């Protein structure tokens, strides 16, 4: 007997077949002893269950059993937010990931901008000195500018055309 | 209330009628914990027994039945009275037991014997015994034997038997509850019944 027929016979015993299928099986049982024997066995088992289950009693007192249930209910009532946390939506989960990542990216950007600004400032101050150094537009002269005292010193590596003294090679402007 | 009155008029004892849970359920839905405690007192044995029949472990059955009561309290607003309160609660404990059994199954490697049992194994091919191994047994003794035989089935086969024979679910409903196909339900049920027939016959032989 194949599996399909076995399961069909079981469906017949359980009343899960249509009226026409049930009639077909009834006809089969009248001429197939093996099928009829299987149906008989399935019906015997089914009728044994119809006598009900073994009675099982809760092995705890009513008070003790209830006390654990009421405690748990009270605990759940106290923590409604905590209980709702595990059921985060996809968007909420993404937010949890994106917020710190976004903050990190923003800090990195601020750092880069700051670094760039610092480098630009350094270049500017260098160019001031550079301009200062080249204020005289003479490759053989060196200039020192003291803004506090409003004084600029220029050293020439060669003698000036209008020297005040021969020993002094600096000019005070 | 009317059901109780009718049984009284017909001469039957009121104890034979199922208790009317509606007033207690309504009170509990309004937040009355005392009413809910009374419902627990009424149905605690039934809910524990269903958990025990599926888990075959006392502590698991206690824990899961209590968890079912807590869930029932949280979901009381969803109970519309389409079924009895006891049936609704039984469905909750069954689902919790199934979840627990799935966790157990994930955590243990399946033995060859279990895989063989899942597919039907040798039981599918065994000769049919038409002698009823439970004939003539007193009801209490019969229930004990059935319980012992059920204890020897795998969790998945025992569950199918419990849902079909004791909870009177149809194939389609069992498939939905267990998260499997109707074909799997039919196959498991067939195997479980033949195995039960074999185990009950063995118990009869041992007795004689």
Can you tell me about this structure?
By secondary structure, chain A is mainly α. Chain A folds into three domains: 3-49, no CATH class; 90-125; 134-172, no CATH class. Helix content of chain A is 62%, strand content 9%. Chain A has six helices and three strands. In chain A, strands 1-2-3 form a three-stranded antiparallel sheet, with no helix packed on it. In chain A, strand 1 (141-146) and strand 2 (151-156) form a beta hairpin. In chain A, helix 1 (3-13) packs across helix 3. Chain A is elongated. By secondary structure, chain B is mainly alpha-helical. Chain B has two domains: 17-107, Orthogonal Bundle (Rna Polymerase Sigma Factor, Chain: A), CATH 1.10.1740.10; 122-207, Winged helix-like DNA-binding domain superfamily/Winged helix DNA-binding domain (Arc Repressor Mutant, subunit A), CATH 1.10.10.10. In chain B, 69% of the residues lie in helices and 0% in strands. Chain B has ten helices and no strands. Chain B has helices at 2-9, 22-29, 33-55, 58-74, 85-107, 112-118, 139-150, 155-166, 171-178, 182-207. In chain B, helix 9 crosses helix 10 (182-207). Chain A binds chain B through residues 3, 6-7, 10-11, 14, 16, 34, 37-38, 40-42, 44-46, 48-60, 62, 65-66, 68-70, 72-73, 76, and chain B through 33, 37, 40-41, 44-45, 48-49, 52-53, 58, 62, 65-66, 69-70, 73-74, 120, 124, 128-130, 132-135, 139, 142-144, 146-147, 161, 164-166, 170-171, 183, 186-187, 189-190, 193-194, 196-197, 200.
**What is the count of DSSP helices of chain B, taking H or I runs of 4+ residues?**
10
Count of runs of 4 or more consecutive helical residues of chain A? 6
Total domains of chain A: 3
Unreliable stretches covering 5 or more consecutive residues of chain B = 1-14
Rg over alpha carbons of chain B? 20 Å
pLDDT averaged residue by residue of chain A: 78
Q: What structural category arises from helix and sheet content of chain B?
A: mainly alpha
Tell me what portion of residues of chain A adopts beta-strand conformation. Answer: 5-15%
- Beta-strand percent range of chain B: under 5%
Biggest pleated-sheet summary of chain B: none
- CATH class type of the largest domain in chain B: Mainly Alpha
* Cα gyration radius of chain A (Å): 51 Å
Name of the CATH architecture of the largest domain in chain B: Orthogonal Bundle
Estimated helix fraction of chain B: 55-70%
Largest interface: A-B, 38 and 49 residues
Multimeric organization: heterodimer
Q: Fraction of residues of chain A in helices?
A: 55-70%
* Low-confidence runs of chain A: 126-136, 162-173
How are strands sequenced across the largest beta sheet of chain A? 1-2-3
């Amino acid at each position: 007997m194949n599996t399909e027929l076995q399961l069909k016979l079981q469906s017949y015993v359980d009343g899960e077949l249509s009226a026409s299928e049930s009639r077909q099986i009834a006809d089969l049982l009248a001429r197939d002893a093996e099928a009829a024997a299987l149906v008989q066995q399935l019906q015997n088992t089914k009728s044994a269950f119809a006598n009900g289950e073994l009675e099982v009693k809760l092995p705890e007192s009513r008070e003790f059993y209830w006390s654990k249930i009421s405690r748990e209910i009270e605990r759940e009532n106290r923590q409604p937010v905590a209980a709702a946390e595990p059921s985060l939506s996809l968007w909420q989960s993404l937010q949890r990931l994106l917020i710190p990542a976004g903050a990190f990216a923003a800090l990195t950007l601020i750092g880069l901008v700051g670094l760039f600004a610092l480098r630009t400032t350094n270049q500017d101050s260098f160019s001031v000195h550079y301009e200062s150094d080249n204020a005289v537009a003479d490759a053989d002269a060196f200039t020192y500018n003291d803004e506090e005292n409003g004084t600029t010193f220029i050293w020439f590596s060669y003698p000036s055309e209008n020297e005040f003294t021969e020993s002094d090679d600096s000019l005070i402007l | 209330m009317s059901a109780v009155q009718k049984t009284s008029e017909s001469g039957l004892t009121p104890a034979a009628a199922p208790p009317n849970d509606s007033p207690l359920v309504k009170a509990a839905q309004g937040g009355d914990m005392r009413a809910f405690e009374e419902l627990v007192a009424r149905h605690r044995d039934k809910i524990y027994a269903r958990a025990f029949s599926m888990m075959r472990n006392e502590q698991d059955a206690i824990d899961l039945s209590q968890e079912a009561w807590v869930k029932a309290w949280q979901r009381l607003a969803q109970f519309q009275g389409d079924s009895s309160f006891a049936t609704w609660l039984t469905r909750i404990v069954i689902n919790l037991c199934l979840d627990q059994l799935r966790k157990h199954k994930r955590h243990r490697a399946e033995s060859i014997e279990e895989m063989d049992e899942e597919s039907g194994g040798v039981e599918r091919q065994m000769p049919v015994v038409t002698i009823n191994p439970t004939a003539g047994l007193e009801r209490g003794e019969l229930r004990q034997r059935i319980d012992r035989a059920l204890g020897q089935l795998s969790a998945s086969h025992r569950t199918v038997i419990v849902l079909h024979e004791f909870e009177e679910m149809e194939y389609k409903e069992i498939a939905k509850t267990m998260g499997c196909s109707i074909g799997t339900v039919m196959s498991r049920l067939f195997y479980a019944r033949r195995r039960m027939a074999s185990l009950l016959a063995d118990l009869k032989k041992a007795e004689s």
